[in-house]
Design brief:
The complex is a heterotrimer. Chain A has three helices and seven strands; from the N terminus they run H-E-E-H-E-E-E-E-H-E. By secondary structure, chain A is an alpha/beta fold. In chain A, strands 1-2-5-4-3 form a five-stranded mixed β-sheet. Chain A has a two-stranded parallel ribbon with strand order 6-7. In chain A, strand 4 (80-88) and strand 5 form a beta hairpin. Chain B has a three-stranded antiparallel β-sheet. A three-stranded antiparallel β-sheet of chain B has the order 6-7-8. The chains are: A alpha/beta, B alpha+beta, C alpha/beta. Chains in contact: A-B, A-C, B-C.
Chain lengths: 165, 364, 167
Amino acid sequence: MPEDPADRPELREALEALTGHFAGAVLAGAVDRGELSVRLAKDALTSALRFLKEEAGFNALEDIAAFDNLGSAGEGGRRFTVVYRLYKFPGALRARVAVDVGEGESLASAVPLYRSADWAEREAFDMFGVRFEGHPDLRRIYMPDEFEGYPLRKDFPLAGRNGGA
Amino acid sequence: MELREYDLNMGPQHPSTHGVLRLKLAVDNEVVLGVEPVLGYLHRGMEKLWESLTFTQVVPLTDRLDYIASLSNNLGYCLAVEKLAGIEVPKRARYIRVVLAELQRLASHLAWAGFMANDIGAMSVLLYAFQAREEVLDVFEEYCGARLTIHGIRIGGAVRDLDAPLVSRIRAVLEKVPRRLEDVRALLDGNRIWKERTVGVGRISGTDAIDYGLTGPSLRASGVAWDMRKDLPYSSYADFGFDVPLGANGDVYDRYLVRLEEICQSIRVVRQALDGLPEGEFTAKVPRALKIAPGEVFHTIEAPKGVLGFTVRSNGSDRPERVKMKSPSFINLQALDHMCRGNLFSDVIGILGSLDIVLGEIDK
Amino acid sequence: MSDGFEKAPFLLTRADLFITWAQKNSLWPFGSGLACCAIEMIATAAARYDIARFGMELFRASPRQADLFIVAGTVTNKMAPVLRRLWDQMPDPKWAMAMGNCAIGGGPFPTYSVLQGVDKIIPVDVYVAGCPPTPQGLIHGLMTLQEKIARSHPTKEILDPDARRPC
């Protein structure tokens, strides 16, 4: 694609520094298609994000996307994968941090580091049931509070249960 | 006066909440202590629905996200899918997309101007802005038949070619819009009432804005020059010269000025794109049943509301495994509490208007 | 049937004509703008399509002051009780219009959170199809409603409470 951002040297440096600091926790890392992509063990999430924010300069959290691996090949062997998308401004650098978390397990909340994580984590909780420890107010954001079930899970039917109630 | 905290409910049915948004306000007499938005009144389950549709079938549904700027949603999604599938979009198609996207930005900002002014009380501006917007919508209607949920940008390119009559029609519209804009500016820019209601209201600093994830004109009004069309250009935007308007104070007035100036810049880009429209195809050849090998991509564009992103994950079939939308209005709304604290209760409307949110995008 | 009708039908039908003429030419919409259709509704109220020529430019924010409930957009399960309460708050005589495919029957969203049609919770008088309906379509729907109002008998409803529409 003519407009793909090049694999800039700053991304390589950031990847090397990250792998250097968190050797055991970085399960996979690459610079691919113009972005730094790492898979982390979930316990290292907060420290790795802090490193990326404060040392490598990724000062903006663009998105938190959760995926349900039920029925798919499954990347890390666990039910859910949560992907954090970081951006460095100025500089236009992108980082993708993926952690796997199982059903009933929880992740550390990124809200102390990035205030933009607040509603994104609530959305992941509402739609998938992934819990975030340390979130100031973890409750549903779209569905009513008393709703049962997590709609974006693969085993939740499109039309809902109870006739959509 | 002693502190008397009072909880007020605004919405979900309210003329000024730009949709079905519910705001729980905690006020002390007239000063706002905190704002808590309650969402979900327009949650339609789009992301779940998309998993059961093919990649091509998802495109018209993206229209309904930010329904005031539907072509931008089309563009954001199509670019992500093309990146994932490795589809090369011809240059003419890219230029046509730029024309459509910038015209859509025009229409979106004009609608915003009308709504925000109407909320604050200047109803004439709503009529003037919508009259200008109607002219742009006429262009869309002539192009592909639809005014609002346009679906004019498809995977691989655009739905139709831009022929010479349509190009001259667009040029005529670009002559008319600045005159309407002058009317609006004459009414509001130096207006004492407008300035009292907008200057110094709803301030947010650049650093706070980035931390809250704010993007788009609301961020640029705080002095942060983050525009995806410049940072990570897509669809040949690097070929065009345009300025990114910035504000200094990060208040409502600056957000208003930035968007009006963006209208002028959009007109500039459309003129350049029309002047330089290359020969070629208006779309790439895309198979009807588009199957994409397993992979994941995240692509962002500068939509009128902010940075719109799509994460698309494929699993080898013709349906996406997951599509996650990074919604600019959803993230921008988080900063509402920060902006409203300490302001008067009646300023909440102005601040909410200046954020330019769309509930379809927030609630998905 | 009340006595008034047997005794003086001519006067009552004249009264009907006058009342319905007044009602249909001054419908005040309660714009329940929920989603995309709301934008077309506002465009209909703007300068080009000018709903004011039908006497309907006064979109009321409070249901107590409105008589036409235009449900413009997708009705979600979370929003449904709110809409029902707003409908109940509107005083008689009132009419409801389902604008757009979502309000008619859920539109393109057969999902867990969308009510498949607003006529599941309120009685609808006119259905305006489209996604979204163009302003011309909405005006056609409003004119259809005006014809429906012209055919109604308000005096019958005033004199005979059982003739009033339920709900």
